[in-house]
Write a structure and sequence with these properties.
Blueprint (H helix, E strand, L loop, with lengths): L2 E11 L2 E12 L3 E5 L6 H8 L7 E5 L6 E4 L11 H5 L5 H18 L4 H16 L3 H13 L14 H14 L4 E5 L7 H13 L3 E5 L3 H7 L2 E6 L2 E6 L2 H13 L6 H17 L8 H16 L1 H8 L11 E10 L2 E10 L5 E5 L6 H8 L7 E6 L5 E4 L12 H6 L4 E3 L5 E3 H7 L16 H13 L5 E5 L7 H13 L3 E5 L3 H7 L2 E5 L5 E4 L3 H9 L25 H30 L4 H32 L2
Parallel strand pairs: 3-7, 3-8, 5-6, 6-7, 12-18, 12-19, 14-17, 17-18
Antiparallel strand pairs: 1-2, 1-4, 8-9, 10-11, 10-13, 15-16, 19-20
Helix pairs in contact: 3-4, 5-6, 9-10, 10-11, 20-21
């Protein structure tokens, strides 16, 4: 089995040590989700493994011919390549022969009468047969189509950044590799493309390390979680839900000062479990234990709200009203006769396929684009903060604390207490010691987080958020979600992040790409099920009444009689073992490996207990008095 062994991985950038002496091994078929706060070095970690950045110290061991494929956050291709040529631009033999085939086909298309072009094409066809390369050619075109790219001969310099990312993703999916590294692969993907990617990765035998902010995707793909924190990396077995479970148990045992963090992990676990329907067959006792945790989350919400709830500029009864709004580009109708009336407290998610006009609609609400027809009415007390996909330029020499203070030195909580800019930076996961850091030294995700805080410091009462989850780490998203849940104003957001929309949006504006917009009163995952799953014709089955047969009591066998004599003792023994295993779980503390083993043993014992109880019931029916 191919594997990669990494030892003593250390990297320092300037005066900041990102990680030190990291050791891990990843085997074929393992899919590790890499998590950590922005700025901890996730992208740097992937770039080091891909050989694009040098580590300060690194020992690496793998078999000969070990191939690594890397999807960067912002992939680059030679501008003169077509989409298909870019997908086949790798150096593996099967991609090279496909690239030669596409080149030969293009020459033949231009001059089909040329004998040289005909001979070249026939020669390449034969080589395609020899390399069994036709499947890869078909896979490439299928992947591009499923990712929303259908013009294969288009030059890559004509594509948007999001389209380039999808072309690069298709290249990674078809390129033979022992280890695949993916940096934010779900950025710019709609739900259907994300689902295709998740299914494709599950079929690969390669090892995979990936960074994503999409928690449903993270939960569905990962077999391990790699967590970068405290200048090291913690390895957890299982997917993101398992990681949250273990974290919730550990935090349950922690000191009361960690209560806020406990609540966040439990809240995320609740939503992960709600969205991951395939995992609902878990053993009953375990589910019941975490239902209790969910109830405790609800009881402790006041603690979170005291920590996050802030006052806003007063919002009157009239917020925003749209009357027959319409907008078209190049004779394509983007929005057609859309009317709405926003109420204080509304939480709206704008959803639809790529290119449907979601950003156009939110820019109309922000008055950055004028509608072709219709009218937008804005209340006198409305104060809008518009968080755009691309943040405005930031002076790299400005210090973080100075940047935030450009909006306000402090901000008022709902209880009237003032919170300083420094305190708010800490709440948005910037520790006090880094507040004097120049913006130029921040990662892209840190800059986005900082800009978001600057907008919130203005105390708006209407938030317009265009893809706020892109490039933000999971912990920052949790902070943002907590903030929005307690925000007394109106929130309108565009996001492809199902988890984020499920937790935030109470209703949806669904755009169909043909100009139509409809309002839907349900959460996003439920909406997707109705849209994606085809409605099957109802089959009517005539009900047949069963024939009533007089039940005859079964005569027990000798083996069953002997089993009945010992089953009570067997049950008592298992109950004692369960109690001991529960104590092992409680004593595991922060030792994740010990906790994992103890929890697995407890699950097995509970399964045995359930089987014994079922067996006891059966024997009771035929032997009990």
């Amino acid at each position: 089995m191919s594997h990669l062994i990494v030892s003593n991985l250390t990297k320092t950038v300037g005066e900041k040590t990102l990680f030190e002496n990291i050791d891990f091994t990843i085997y074929a078929g393992e899919r590790a989700g890499l998590i950590g706060v922005n700025g901890t070095g996730k992208s740097t970690f992937l770039s080091i493994l891909a050989g694009q950045i040098e580590a300060d110290q690194l020992t690496i061991d793998h078999p000969n011919q070990y191939r690594i494929s890397f999807l960067e956050q912002d992939p680059q291709f030679s501008e003169d390549l077509t989409v298909l040529q870019a997908v086949f631009s790798g150096d593996s033999p099967v991609l090279q022969i496909n690239r030669q085939y596409e080149d030969a086909l293009e020459k033949l298309t231009i001059d089909s009468a040329s004998e040289a072009n005909q001979n070249l094409y026939m020669d390449i066809q034969q080589r395609m047969d020899e390399f069994n390369a036709w499947d890869v050619n078909a896979m490439a075109k299928t992947a591009l189509s499923r990712l929303g790219i259908d013009m294969f001969d288009r030059k890559v310099n004509e594509l948007s950044g999001g389209q380039l990312k999808r072309v690069a993703l298709a290249k990674v999916l078809i390129e033979p590799a022992d280890l695949i590294l993916l940096d934010e692969p779900t950025n710019h993907l709609d739900v259907q493309s994300s689902k295709f990617l998740q299914e494709s990765l599950a079929k690969l035998s390669s090892a995979i390390i990936f960074v994503t902010h999409d928690r449903y995707f993270l939960d569905g793909v990962s077999t391990h979680i790699y967590e970068i924190a405290d200048q090291t990396m913690y390895t957890h077995r299982g997917n993101y839900g398992d990681y949250l479970e273990a974290k919730a148990i550990r935090e349950e045992m922690a000191a009361s000062s960690q209560l806020k963090l406990q609540n966040r992990f439990r809240s995320e676990l609740k939503w992960i479990r709600r969205g991951a329907k395939a995992r609902t067959t878990k053993q009953k006792a375990r589910i019941q234990r975490f239902e209790v945790l969910d109830e405790q989350v609800d009881r402790n919400n006041d603690t979170t709200s005291l920590d996050m709830k802030l006052a806003t500029t007063r919002l009157g009864k009239k917020v925003l009203e749209g009357i027959d709004l319409s907008k078209a580009y190049n004779n394509k109708q983007i929005i057609k006769n859309f009317s709405f009336l926003l109420q204080p407290g509304d939480r709206i998610g704008i959803v639809g396929p790529n290119g449907a006009g979601k950003s156009t609609l939110i820019n109309i609400l922000a008055e950055k684009i004028q509608p072709d027809e219709g009218e937008l009415l804005i209340g006198q007390t409305v104060k809008v903060a518009h968080f755009e996909q691309t943040i405005p330029p930031m002076n790299p020499t400005t210090r973080m604390i100075e940047y935030v203070r450009e909006s306000s030195n402090d901000i008022e909580g709902s209880d009237g207490v003032r919170h300083s800019a420094a305190q708010m930076l800490e709440r948005f996961l910037f520790p006090l010691k880094v507040h004097g850091t120049p913006i130029g030294k921040l990662s892209g995700g840190e800059r986005k987080r900082l800009h978001l805080l600057k907008l919130l410091m203005e105390q708006p009462n209407v938030l317009l958020l265009d893809e706020p989850t892109n490039d933000l780490d999971i912990q920052t998203l949790s902070v943002l979600e907590d903030f929005i849940e307690q925000f007394p104003g109106v929130v309108i957001t565009i996001s492809h992040d199902r988890f984020f929309l499920d937790r935030i949006a109470k209703k949806l504006w669904a755009l169909d790409g043909k100009g139509n917009t409809r309002e839907v009163q349900e959460i996003y995952s439920d909406f997707l099920e109705q849209v994606v799953v085809p409605i099957e014709e109802e089959i009517i089955i005539e009900k047949v009444e069963p024939v009533q047969v007089k039940e005859q009591k079964k005569k027990p066998s000798y083996k069953e009689q002997k089993e009945w004599e010992t089953i009570d003792a067997d049950i008592a023994k298992i109950e004692a073992e369960i109690m001991a295993a529960e104590k092992e779980v409680e004593s595991a503390g922060a030792d994740f490996e010990k906790l994992q083993l103890a929890t697995t043993q407890l699950d097995q014992l509970n399964n045995q207990y359930n089987l014994l109880i079922e067996r006891w019931s059966y024997l009771q029916d035929i032997l009990g008095s």
